Every structure is written in C-alpha cells, then in structure tokens.
Amino acid sequence: MFELTLQALYSGLLTGAYYALVALGLALVFGTMKIINLAHGELVLLAAYVAYTAESQWGLNPLASIPLALVLVGFVAVAVYLLVGRIKKDRELNSLILTFGIGIILTNFVLLVWSADIHSTTTTWFQEAVVVGDILYSSRSEVLFFLISIALVFATWWWLTRTWYGRAIRAVSSNRDAAMLMGVNPRQTEVLSFVVAGVLATVAGIAIYTGQVIQPSLGLALTIKAFIITVLAGMGSIPGVLLGAVLIGVIEALTVTYLSSSLQEFTGMVLFLVVLLLRPQGLFGFGARRG
Amino acid sequence: MKNKLRTLALAGAIALAGLVGAHAEETILLGSHLPLTGKLARVGTGMHEGIAVAVDMFNRQNEGKYKVELVTIDDETNPAKAVAAVEKLAGEGVVALTGGYGSNIIGPASEAANKAGLVYITSGGVAPELSKRGHKGFFRINNTEGYSKAMMGLLKDMGVKKVSILYNNKEATTDLAKTVEKDLSDQGIEVVLHAFDGATSDFKPLVNKVKLQDKSDAIGMVGYENDYVGILKAGTVLKPDVKAMVGVWSLATSKMNEEFHDLVQTVYGTSMLPYPAEFTSPEAKEFADTYQKLFGKEPDYLGQFGYVQTKLLLEAIVRAQQAGTLATGGLAEELRGTDANTLIGRVKFDENGDNPFFSHRMGQHQGDKVVLVWPEDAATGKMIFPATPWSQ
Known about the structure:
The complex is a heterodimer.
Chain A: H1 2-33, H2 40-58, H3 66-85, H4 91-114, H5 124-127, E1 129-132, E2 136-139, H6 140-162, H7 164-174, H8 176-181, H9 186-211, H10 218-233, H11 238-258, H12 264-278
Antiparallel strand pairs in A: 1-2
Chain B: H1 2-23, E1 26-34, H2 41-61, E2 66-74, H3 79-91, E3 96-98, H4 103-115, E4 119-122, E5 138-140, H5 144-158, E6 162-168, H6 171-186, E7 190-196, H7 204-214, E8 218-222, H8 225-238, E9 244-247, H9 254-259, E10 268-270, H10 282-295, H11 301-323, H12 330-336, E11 339-342, E12 345-348, E13 362-366, E14 369-374
C-alpha cells in the first residue's frame, strides 16, 4: 500500500502541474480582465493539433512546432480579444456567452480540418519511462512539462508583479480610468494579456499532445478543468493556480488508489464545492475589501 | 373551344405523368441520426460511411426501380438532440431509421422512433436493456454476448488464471465488463473489475493497482480508443508483469495500427476483418471497392456494421413494398423474417430484435498487420503469446 500511495502522490503531482499549465492562461485573463474565456480549452487544443500536423506531415518534433503553434494560437487569441472588446454592455456576462460560442466554432473547425480521429505523438522519447528509486514511475513528457509548468507559473507571477507591463495589466484590472490617467493604454495591455494567455495555451497544448490523447471534443473538458482550478485557487492568484491544480491532481490520484477510478472526477468536484462553501474567494484569493 | 383545349392539355399532362410514373423509380426516404460531432464523432462517422456505402450500392443495383434518399442528422453525441432528430426525420416522412451510436443515445432515440411507429436498426449500442423494452420495431445486429464470447474464448484458450478488467463506467461498457466477468468466472477464471471515468487521462494509479495488488495474468480493457491509448501508455511506463493486453471494439483496427503502431503491438481486440483486409466474396469486394471510391480508404469494422444493418433494412423495405405492407407496419415483420449470411456472419433476429447468432472474432496487432487469432476456424495467423507492447 505504501508503494501505491507514493505513486499516487507522485502521479497527482505531475498531473496537477499539467492541469496548472492548462489553467494558467485562463487564470491570467480572468484575474486581470474579469473575463472568463470559455474558448481557452480550444486554444490549447488548436496548439496540440498544430503539433500533430507538424509531426505527421513534416516529421517535426512536437517541441519544435511551438513557434508555429504560437503564431496560430496567438492570432486566434487576439481575434477572440477583438471580438470580446466589441462588447460594451455587461461585458462579464456577455463575454461568457461569446467565448462559449467561439469555443464551439473552434471545436467544429478542428473537426472539419483534422477529423474526429484521436492522435498522440509518435516520438517515442516522450513516452519512455523515468523511474525514480524503482518506486516512482512517470513518462519523460510528464517530467519535462512538470518542470516547464513550474517555471511558467513563476515567470507569469514575476512578470505580473515585477514588470511595467505586468503592473499595467493589474492597474487596468483594478481601475481602468485611473490607469488611463497614469498613461496606460488599456486596450494594449488587454491584448497583451490575451497574447500571453495564448502563449501559455500553446505550451499546454504541446504538453497534452506529447503526454495524452487529443480529440476535437477535448477543448470543453479542458476549459472546465481550468475554470475549476482558477476558482479554487482564488481570482488573481497565479501561484495559487499551481497549488490548486496539484491539490486536484493529488485528490484524484488518491481517489483512484483508495476508492475507485470512476469517482475521481466526482471527488475533484466535491473538493471544489467544499472550498467554494468555506472560502468563496478561493484558497489563495483575497476577500472583498470593505471601505 | 378554349375550355376544350384546356381539358385536352390537362388530360395529356395527366397521361404523360402516368406514363412517366409507370417507369419512374420509387423514392425511398431513409433516416439516420449519428454523432458526427462531439465525443463519439469518430465512431459515428465510421458508421455513417458504412451506411452511405450500403445506400450507394443499393441505388446502383436497383437503378430504375428504387432510389434511396438518405437524410442524416448529426445528434452531436447528445441524447436530447438524437430524440429531436428522430422526431424531425419522422416528420419528414422517412420509412425507417438506421444508425445511432452509444446505448445512452440509442435508448431515448429508439423510444422516439417507437412512438412514431418507425423501425430502428442499429449496431452502435450493445446494452442488454435496449432489446428488452418490447419495441416491435427495434433491431440490432450485434450485442454484448457476441463481444463477451470472443473475449472470454480468447482468454480461456490462453489458459490465464486471473484477469483484471479495466472498464469505462458508461452503460454499454459496464454491461459488457460485467458480462465478461460472469462468463470468465463461470469458466473458473478469477476476475478483478476496475471501473474508470471516461474523463480519465492518467491511468498510472489504476494500472499500478493491477501491477502491485491484483498481480493478474492479463489485463482486459473495455472502453474506447482514447481509453486504450491511455491504459497502454500507463502500461508502457509501469510495465506490469502480465501476459496479454486484451480489449474489445475500436482497438484491433487499421487506424490504431497506423496511428499508435508501437503502442499496440501484440495487443488484442475484437475484429471482423484482418488488416490489410482480405475480401473474398463478390459482395465483400464490391463493398470494399465502393468504400474506397466514396471515402478513399479501406473499410473498417464500423463501416462494415453500418453497411450490414442498412443493407438488411433496405432489403426488408423492398420486400415490404412489394408485399404492399410498407405503410401498414409490415417492415418490422419483414426484418424479423430476415435470415442472411452477411459480412459479419449470420443475422437472424429473435422476437426482441436481437441477433443471437452474433459472435465476434479476435485480432492481434502483429507488426503492420492485424491478424485474426480467434476462433481457430477464422484465424489468419497464430497468436503471439505471452507478449505485451513493453515486453517486445
């Protein structure tokens, strides 16, 4: 049982890091613009399909396809922002409906271009086992993207808190008019946050393509998972995304080990609801200030 | 004079219409709902291709007599939309329905067809409950027992003593896993069942349980393509000490061999055809040629099932039409009287619309081929046993 528990914790940790990678872009846009981009999962999926095309058609290593995927996903992310930017009334609610619709269009675009077949990388390097102490097992892809995920979480956090553009995004999020008076261009900073979210979605897409299986219907499931993690972490908390994602990953893996694999999604949702009940601001979010 | 001319012209037109009508083809409107988008899009598309081939072949063979017009609606892998599709097709005047994928979708969709008085034939749902509802117009050419017989037969011939079965917790896969468990237990083989959620992406904790706790001789997989790939990837990392990896539908296919070549080596799955496909009968050759012409690829098992169910339905429609009973509910009786040797073997429906003669075959991925290894009389090669993708 000890070995099973250790492997469950290890698997949960690795899965959590991959969840964090998927959720990071959504959390960034949600935290800075109060917009829930329900097409985020489809952006991740688009990057994964670009990697598939590059590998199957030109024999490119999935990691080498990142620049190509970045261009396409970045372009679509900006297009999503331009559409969302046209909403003048009830932006939070209407952007939800709009991005959900964009998600459906993107899913069907993927279906039309790449068909409904499932795909995964054929590069065996990613699938090979990494064994730690003859007790902890993972694939190379999982270990690689675990490290990349942690690096990207901290890079995003550093960028938001330590750079001028990061502060500008937070300023626009906090008070758009005051930020304008300080010389910040709100549209420019919002486009930037969508582009950064696109970059994060691209890396997440490559991670999924190398470690799991992609199919057109995956996008919505990714968005839901990312949304749960974002809310669980607390709005605006970037390191919280990593911790929330790892928590979900570990709970799911332990559920498989001690209860049943068919309950893993259920326990993740129970955890989400319990946190919402006890801490509506999320695990690492701040409560509303009282003036 | 003007009136006379008008009357003459009208009479001429009626006579001409009658003359043309006497030689015109009779148009048969056939309905189909399938998941062409959503989670089951791949399997739905596969079946749709088989249905289209059956319609194309029928129209060519009956040129000048009958012409089938197929109306297909995408149910988006959604039971409510499948019901709406059936109601819409009934409103458009289709004579029967072919298609449907997923027992949870076929259940309510065929219920709607029953209310509309339409015959519904499928191969996309194997849940036993579907044929126990007393619907006189419900027919299916395959069932859980046929898959279970094949999986159980292979495992029994392997001489394994203990099997862990990992199954998707959907209705059809749960039913099949439990049927296989019962059949194997009756043969004295110990079985451990592990259900998993369809959204599972990391199977390592589950496969690790099999490795460290169950210590089984073989792993059975009852799920869908993405589940198989996930389990096999976890197996490649954890390398459980088992002698065989055995799955059911959608596994021993040309698609899986091409797309996941290394991952599926020596893995077994149900398969009616070897790969590359060998078609010997004239009908099978025509089926394969038409498939190639329409879709530019070799047929797979989904297309084969879709083709057989639609072909049987169209033949019954013609018989009912000739007997003059098509409009009075004679189609179900004609289908019930079907006893045919088809591309999937003998099909004869019982009083519930099930095909008790359905039995599957087992294929094994061997290099670039899928070799039929069970039953012995249908085998195209010998099984490689014991073997797993990670022991190769």
